[in-house]
Design a protein that fits this description.
Largest sheet: 2 strands, antiparallel
Number of helices: 7
Number of strands: 6
Number of domains: 1
Mean pLDDT: 94
Strand content: 5-15%
Length: 222
């Protein structure tokens, strides 16, 4: 006698995932404000270039490179679950790059690393509230960034699907979603060796390009 067990219903793709996929890499909603954001990012980097502040420039690029790795990994979660990525962005955007990344957010991350290192004291050994100042600022900026995400989540343009990466369970978002970004920026910034900094950034960018080519262009998973 064969015991037949009822099959579990398949989890459907979420509505916000469908919304994000519906505008994925579409150019119909392009806005000229995007050109202004590009100019703003160029101005920030031009200021540091004028001062020959290579450490800030490369720290900023390192944070941006880390974000692209995270975004590809996030998009692959949607491919693997066929339900939702870990985070998803919706709402009006000039260009939706991945399911969890639009061009406005990407420009923000491009600038965020430079903003972050501006706060770092010259002496890495200095302590704030009893902890190394790099640790303090990594945690401070990570918590602030998650607070912004919570506001976007409350505004229904940023979405979390899984309980372990969701409000109020934000610890993983702080530690893995942002602390790794800011820690990478601080690490690169404190090297004070342009060649070594450039090698780290070059490696990150090479990983980014390889991931996008493999999972985006070749396999078309993201």
């Amino acid at each position: 006698m064969t015991l037949l067990l009822p099959s579990l219903p398949a989890l459907a793709v979420t509505d916000f995932t469908r919304e994000a996929l519906g505008q994925l890499r579409q150019t119909d909603d392009f806005q000229w404000a995007t050109v202004f954001l590009l100019s703003l990012a160029m101005y920030v980097y031009a200021n540091e270039y004028e001062r020959r502040n290579w450490s800030a420039i490369l720290a900023g690029l390192a944070l941006w490179g880390m974000d692209w790795i995270n975004e590809v990994a996030n998009a692959l979660v949607l491919q693997g679950t066929d339900r939702a990525a870990i985070w998803t962005t919706t709402g009006h955007t000039s260009f939706q790059i991945f399911v969890g990344l639009n061009i406005e957010i990407s420009f923000m991350f491009l600038i965020a690393g430079i903003v972050f290192v501006k706060f770092l004291p010259p002496d890495p050994a200095m302590r704030i509230l009893g902890m190394p100042n790099r640790v303090f600022y990594v945690l401070f900026f990570s918590i602030f960034s998650v607070a912004v995400e919570v506001l976007l989540w409350a505004g229904d343009v940023f979405h979390w699907e899984y309980w372990w990466w969701n409000f109020p369970n934000v610890i993983l978002i702080v530690l893995l979603g942002y602390a790794t970004f800011y820690a990478m920026a601080a690490w690169v910034y404190d090297m004070h060796d342009v060649r070594r900094q450039a090698r780290v950034v070059g490696t990150l960018f090479a990983i980014d390009v390889a991931l996008v080519l493999l999972f985006g262009v070749i396999l078309e998973w993201i």
